[in-house]
Design goal:
6-stranded mixed beta sheet; 6 strands
Length: 158
Amino acid sequence: MKLVTGTVFACVLMAGVAVAQQSAMASKAEMRTGPANVEQHLMAMENEWARASLRSDGNAIEPMLSPDFVNINSDGTVLDRARTVARTNKSKMEISELSELAVNTHGDTAVVTGVWTGKGVNNEGKAFEGKERWADTWMKKNGKWQCVASASAPIKSE
């Protein structure tokens, strides 16, 4: 009987150690994907979006955008994902820079805000130059961050 009790105790102890190790590993993984790393990751995605705009590469931003993505431009137009990608492919940018980036996370949702400075020729062939304040809403879907909504407003020069 003592042998059975000792064996059961050893099994329970080993199971407890395994659970503790798994919990510690999960905590380390959480640290790697914690808020600071989410902020860095989303800022990197925003900067890649700006660089893709410089290259007129809408295909590079398409995977970043949720299939139900909604884009409210500073001129009031509303675009879906396909139209945003097409518009990016047709535009020819000389400048596409981001500044004042800030990330606010809310679990698997985050809002990234910033200022965009741009110059170039839009998808309709019209030259433009401007500065906009914007807000992008990102959601983590199936383990991957995607932008679900974007809105921008012009910043009037003083």
